[in-house]
From TrEMBL:
Keywords: FAD, Flavoprotein, Oxidoreductase. It is an enzyme of class 1 (oxidoreductase). The keyword Transport does not apply. This is Carbon-monoxide dehydrogenase (Acceptor). The lineage of its organism: Bacteria, Pseudomonadati, Bacteroidota, Chitinophagia, Chitinophagales. Pfam families: CO_deh_flav_C (PF03450), FAD_binding_5 (PF00941). SMART domains: CO_deh_flav_C (SM01092).
Length: 278
């Protein structure tokens, strides 16, 4: 459980981080709560770690041009306790409180969670349901990508190895928007065995995303289509549950069989829809 020897550099600006990332065997270190365990197991063997914990600009949570902007190095706890988030994205507050334990929440970052793309991580489902945009910066400049295009597979994303996630942007939800994050947690790790994030807008538009269920988090457009614009009642919930999970291969592992995970996901979709019912 000892990592291969590595170099370490702490940077204080985004430009310093990008310059330091030019070497392919270099990795960003944020909270270290996914990377360090992987290095201890020797699943990851970077030659050098670039610690972004000193870049204060990456920790900002603010409102800008009608959007909520969350810096990539904001910790789960920073998001959990931020009044802007509590007011406008209450399901981020709800979801952040369910991540790991206090130590994990105080160190782990939203950017690290998205970049790591664990199939059972919580932020991917929440940023998908929020229809977030993920901002990145690398040697070729800045770019942004919708969360729906970011997660590409098991632990894989659209992020290039020498790119840094800088922020997550979410359009300010209109007044009257409801949202929820409902999670069935693996009892030891607290990771999701199945979890569902839902946003319900005043016009009835509904976004639904799952994590823990397939090899990466995903928006369930089948279930969204059934429930959007319709009243939430027993009939529409039943139809949404039937329509859900049609477009993914549901995971089966030693924690939960495919059938059990499917059942859990649908039950948690039902709980989520009841929670945002008008
Ligand atoms: C005991 C335990 C319980 C946990 N429980 C949960 C849970 O219930 N739910 C959950 O979702 N997660 C859980 N986690 C994971 C935790 O949330 C991690 O902190 C998180 O997944 C990774 O964030 P980090 O800041 O620690 O990233 P790091 O471990 O520092 O980095 C992870 C990866 O992301 C890359 N990276 C980091 N930041 C950036 C960036 N800004 N741009 C580009 N790449 C970047 C790194 O190079 C590395 O490859 C748990 C972890 C532990 C140890």
């Amino acid at each position: 459980m000892i990592p291969v020897a590595f170099d370490y550099e702490k940077v204080h600006t985004i430009d310093e981080a990008i310059a330091a990332l030019s070497n392919d065997d270099t990795k960003i270190l944020a909270g270290g709560h996914s990377l360090i365990p992987a290095m201890k197991l020797r699943l990851s063997r970077p030659e050098k770690l670039i610690d972004i914990g000193g870049i204060t600009a990456l920790k900002d949570i603010k409102e800008e041009d009608g959007e909520i902007v969350i810096g990539a190095a904001a910790t789960h706890a920073d998001i959990l306790y931020h009044p802007l988030i509590r007011t406008h994205l209450p399901f981020f507050t709800e979801g952040a409180a369910m991540i790991g334990d206090m130590q994990v929440r105080n160190h782990g970052t939203i950017g690290g969670s998205l970049a790591h793309a664990d199939p059972a991580a919580d932020w991917p489902a929440m940023v998908l349901a929020a229809d977030a945009t993920i901002e990145m910066q690398g040697p070729n400049g800045r770019r942004s990508i919708k969360a729906t295009e970011f997660f590409t597979g098991l632990f894989s994303t659209a992020l290039e190895p020498n790119e840094l996630i800088t922020a997550i942007r979410i359009a300010m939800p209109p007044d009257g928007t409801k949202s929820t994050y409902q999670k069935f947690a693996q009892p030891a790790s607290r990771f999701s065995l199945a979890a569902c994030a839902v946003m319900r807008f005043p016009d009835g538009g509904t976004t639904i995303a799952f994590t823990g269920v397939a090899d990466h988090a995903f928006r369930d457009t089948g279930a969204e289509h059934v429930i959007s614009g319709k009243p939430i009642d027993d009939d529409s919930i039943e139809k949404a549950m039937q329509a859900a999970l049609q477009m993914v291969d549901v995971l089966s592992d030693h924690y939960a069989s495919e059938a059990y995970r499917k059942h859990l996901a649908k039950v948690y979709l039902r709980k989520a829809l009841l929670a945002v019912k008008g």
